[in-house]
């Protein structure tokens, strides 16, 4: 190898050139290793270690070794090297910078606040020693902002921009952005770009300001321009990916994420970003390959194991999912998501050793704890473990604690949901729907399965997806994003309320929105089957909008006994959404509001929605499946009755349950906790007594 030859030249002292020549050869080797860092960190690592074998303790070689380890995705090893280096070289700004970056990488994996504090200290020392280290300032700013130190973060960002460009206008714009004066920052950036069109730093900053203002679409153009003018501008491309991922254009986001991975294949963060996008479009196998690639380089990353477990679970590889979750929990026992993910498989029983490990991971006092989500998930997992052991009182206590922790961090007002239900019923009357008959996009493709979580909707989806003409996708956010955009017009003052905004939609608007939905969801369709399922349960809130923009779409309402459905939802930790589910009274009010809206829509559009009662499906599966397919206008197929043999990917909490035949255990499971459910009964009111018929009927 060239590196070994260089090291031998250094060892020989380069007799022909004397001592000065030996020094020159050493410097050349160090320069060569430094140049390799960005593209080939593992080769740079090998060269640095070869130099250190010949010249032990050489500070520059140690620095390159630490950099290479970090860039190769081995931040823990980098930390060991760099901590020793800064002890020996307390005035080496570059070493402190690299130590800070290694600690940031570790903190990103472990979500450890102490690592963040150490990174901040190292980066502060670096910029104190050498104030012109722009990348150290940027890294410090990111850590301060993550720690909630917005003012200090803004100052650090200012210092980084000053070191990088010395442009006073960019400096002021960055300060304004960091302090939340976004309109001022916007004006300054446009002034800067007027004087220097195409400045990538200004374009990226402009994109970030627009993104922070909530102008997601407007942020894309400057970010795209920054990447076009500076293809190696990684920070601009990373931000572009994240902004694109907020909208419907996941395909473009994936293209840029793939470029990041191609340019730096050993960068674990870029691989994680790409994998998250692959998961989003349903390419679980592609995501699994990326996660396994990261683990092959460094098997000590709990977050990667956790994400791998989620993918394996979705693909139906239960044994692999269990192994991945247990590896994550073993690496960091305080990772509540790993324990909850195990418990949430529903087919794994956590034993006494698991319970002891989870209890040991719980802090004595979690008030203000930065890992509140993990703590909440530990309580949910402990609840499931005690429930499986038949210890209802201990189980309920842990569920209650986990729910209280989760609820404390959420903004939810049940009255908002109830007002929206009244508004929906007031707008979508039979006369209103009649006047809009024939409008919208005529595509018959979508089958919406709506209802509450834990209502049996995944079972309905799996049965339908076992039909030769129906493709199962996942819980798609697209209809809700369209609805949110329409609500944005109310917030902007264009309409006084949401019903008025909906009533103002013209026939052309309805057709365009329906076509948009079909286009947005196309990326999730992997087969040529004519129909597909959108199983976002919360779409019950928008059945009227569905009727307006997709009049040929079918709607299936999956409904389960109020106590069984609500209690099951309450003891479920949801990764996102379902903010109503962490209080027994609130989930009861939500269920009652849902029943009220669906009953009103049934009166306005009889037969438009087909209802599947979970208990009836369990009691008479063949009859219920035939009725379901009749409503869809599809012939009966035996495969729908052996739905558990379908190996499609399933991403919901019921993924393992729908991979086995229907069983009756869950129908009355809530009765084990009956004595604690009075708040839920009171909130449900008449809905409980009249089930399955709505009180209005």
TrEMBL record:
InterPro entries: P-loop_NTPase, TPR-like_helical_dom_sf, TPR_rpt, TPST-like. TPR repeats lie at residues 302-335. SMART domains: TPR. It holds the Pfam family Sulfotransfer_3. The keyword Transferase applies. PROSITE patterns: TPR. This is Tetratricopeptide repeat-containing sulfotransferase family protein. The lineage of its organism: Bacteria, Pseudomonadati, Pseudomonadota, Alphaproteobacteria, Sphingomonadales.
